[in-house]
């Protein structure tokens, strides 16, 4: 069964992406092609927890969408991440409507139209919240 290897984001400015990943999210830069690209273009690699993230210089998505990558953080960490990301000037997005029992999320766009989410819950918690909703007809969705 395949597992996640890495995530790649195409960005205009590798240094600015490095700021977002390292200062904003606490990643560690582990590689910089330094003008000698071995792939399609100049690139940097980062480790965010155990996740390998590659940033490649190029033309990023022209439009924003809800397609995103979510990273799990704790409830207690979320406010600090919000402050760090706001200090970098990223564009915060309102959370989608939530059902009772769902965890919290912080959505933000990077400087190249990629959407990220910091999420405080697990798949099991989400399924339990949806299961409760399905069992209670007429349950109201609450915004957070």
Write a compact overview of the structure shown:
The chain is α/β, with parallel strands linked by helices and 144 residues long. It is built from 3 helices and 8 strands.
Structure explained in plain terms:
The protein has 144 residues and is of the alpha/beta class. The protein folds into two domains: 1-59, 2,3-Dihydroxybiphenyl 1,2-Dioxygenase, domain 1; 61-144, 2,3-Dihydroxybiphenyl 1,2-Dioxygenase, domain 1 (Roll), CATH 3.10.180.10. The protein is built from three helices and eight strands; from the N terminus they run βαββββαβββα. The chain has helices at residues 14-24, 78-88, 123-135; strands spanning 6-11, 28-32, 43-48, 51-57, 68-72, 91-93, 105-109, 115-119. The strands form two sheets. The chain has a four-stranded mixed sheet with strand order 1-4-3-2, with helices on one face. It has a four-stranded mixed sheet with strand order 5-8-7-6, with helices on one face. Strand 7 (105-109) and strand 8 (115-119) form a beta hairpin. The chain starts with 5 loop residues before the first strand and ends in a 9-residue tail after the last helix. The model has no long low-confidence stretch (mean pLDDT 88).
Key features of this structure:
144 residues, alpha/beta, 2,3-Dihydroxybiphenyl 1,2-Dioxygenase, domain 1, 3 helices, 8 strands
């Amino acid at each position: 069964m395949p597992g996640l290897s890495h995530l790649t984001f195409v960005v205009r400015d590798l240094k600015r992406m490095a700021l977002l990943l390292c200062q904003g999210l606490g990643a560690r830069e582990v590689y910089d092609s330094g003008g000698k690209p071995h792939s399609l273009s100049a690139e940097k690699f980062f480790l965010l927890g155990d996740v390998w993230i590659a940033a490649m210089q190029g033309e990023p998505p022209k439009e924003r969408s809800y397609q995103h990558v979510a990273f799990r953080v704790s409830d207690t960490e979320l406010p600090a991440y919000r402050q760090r990301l706001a200090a970098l000037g990223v564009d915060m997005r309102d959370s989608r409507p939530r059902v009772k029992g769902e965890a919290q999320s912080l959505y933000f766009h990077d400087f190249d139209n990629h959407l990220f989410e910091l999420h405080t819950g697990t798949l099991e918690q989400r399924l339990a919240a949806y299961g409760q909703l399905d069992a209670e007809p007429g349950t109201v969705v609450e915004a957070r």
